[in-house]
Design a protein that fits this description.
Blueprint lengths: L3 E12 L2 E13 L4 E5 L6 H9 L7 E3 L2 E4 L2 E2 L5 H7 L4 E4 L3 H4 L6 H12 L4 H14 L5 H4 L9 H13 L5 E5 L7 H18 L2 E6 L2 H7 L2 E6 L2 E7 H6 L4 H8 L19 H5 L5
Parallel strand pairs: 3-9, 3-10, 7-8, 8-9
Antiparallel strand pairs: 1-2, 1-4, 1-5, 5-6, 10-11
Helix pairs in contact: 4-5, 5-7, 7-8
Length: about 280
Amino acid sequence: MSLLEIENLVVEFQTASGPFRAVDGVSLKVDEGEVLAIVGESGSGKSVSMLAAMGLLPWTAKVTADKLLFNGRDMQKMSDADRRKIIGREISMIFQEPVASLNPCFTVGYQIEEVLRVHTDLNRKARRDRAIELFQLVGIPNPEERLGHFPHQMSGGQCQRVMIATALACNPKLLIADEPTTALDVTIQKQILDLLMKLQAEHGMGLIMITHDMGVVAETADRVIVQYKGRKIEEADVLSLFQNPRSVYTKALLSALPENAVGGRLPTITENLTDQQIFEGAVR
């Protein structure tokens, strides 16, 4: 049984010029212990798809799906209270901008302990011990001292590690990592990716990696979904995708890797491609 199973997910937002369809008929599955990468350029609906699945979009968004199951449970039929019991405990998300996602008014230790206070029966001392253990797990030095720091007192890489520790606090079955290495230097990026893959393997979690970086996909994923303008263009195992991409768009996306730069310039992904050509043969 799949951990997360989505069929025909549609997300619409109301704008001044009318409804805007940000996600158009996306379907996906992820199993326990599997790493699924969702890749595409900015605005392709990657993050919105996962926020919709978790019920974290604003009430103004219209979300529909033929099927939206987590661990066999229908999330569309859950009450808000039941959904809140799952989010943060069984499904966790590492958000794209760690500094912006952490509350600047509270220490990072308080914010981790808050997750444990909501989702576990641990007493105050046990919550602090668990927070220290989590900081050690993600490689934050001097964890006892760092628990008392505010987000602005920590570097971007350290805040990202705090976000990972918070997401892992309750040993979730599914972890969604939304651009987990954005705005980090190359050395820190590798450390964060290595850490995520190590923890994923150790805990047997399902992992959804949202990214526009094909290098990250090659290093981490078992399967890949390619999205463009809210639609799923292609889905394949990672080796097949890189060796034999089927869609015109996926080929264009792979051609935009840095090693393919000519004269210091990368090819434009949609150069000479119409939407009709891009969507031709798309997986629905």
